[in-house]
Amino acid sequence: MKATLLRRFAFALMAHASRILPPARAPWAEAMKQELDHIEGDLEAVRWAVGCVFASYVERSKAMDVIRNPYARGLLALLIFTQVLSFLFATTLTVSYRLNHPRIATFLGSFTPGDDYRRFIPLMDATPWWIHALWVAASALFFISALQLVRNRPAAFPLFAAAWTLGAIGNLISESMPAYREVFSFPAPSFTRDYLLPAVTTLIPVLIAAALWARVNRESAS
To answer: How distant, in Å, are the alpha carbons of 117, 144, 146 from that of 158?
Structure first.
């Protein structure tokens, strides 16, 4: 039987995870492949494969000290800066809408599903400002973490972890609101919107945290 698109995507992710794993973890790669063959649901297979990719990057980061390279630190700092922009996005859009700056709101809305900020008005009206305060605080901590990373300071990891925790709390509360579920209900599924983008946005902070954590472990062991 011909494999579906999701199943082929899961196989591709698993192949990538196998290539990323250090040679010493080759038995892991084989075990993960065998497990994938026994997963019946295509969506479950994709989720399993994404988890394997995360684990592979974590193991790879433990095997190499990329943060010693200033260019690598700069790249990681840029990735952290994307988290600053991500957690500031909803607050900036809401402020633009509340202060009646439709041009800014329209521009920001072009980066959202549906390309129109007006569909988010019920959610913006329902979101209390203390949730925005969590996101702003997370963005500030991410920014400071990036600066610490550029300076090669060990404080980069705890700052990043604190920022991610605050942002995740804000996201979980926001996603539990009825207005959120209403705004993010779409008539038809989309592979890019529903699977690929969430996987990428989850993978980026995992990779950053793994690299920072590996460096902390090396410094504590030395």
So the answer is: 34, 11, 12
| SS3 category, 185 | coil
Which amino acid, one-letter code, is at 78? L
The pTM of the full predicted model, rounded to 2 decimals, is 0.70
For residue 206, what is the enclosing H or E element?
helix 197-221
Q: pLDDT tens across 100-143, in order?
A: 999 999 999 888 877 788 989 999 999 999 999 999 999 999 99
**How far is Cα of residue 74 from the mean position of the Cα atoms in its chain?**
18
Tokens of 108: 């920001």
197 contact partners, CB below 8 Å, separation of at least 6: none
User: What are the start-end ranges of the E strands in the chain?
Assistant: none
* Token code pair at residue 150: 């550029």
Phi, psi of 151 (to 5 degrees): -85, 0
The per-residue pLDDT for range 21-38, each reduced to its tens digit, is: 877 777 887 888 888 888
Distance CA 20, CA 9 (A): 17
156-175 and 197-221 are packed helices; what angle lies between their axes, rounded to 10 degrees? 150
Query: How is residue 216 written in tokens?
Result: 């902390």
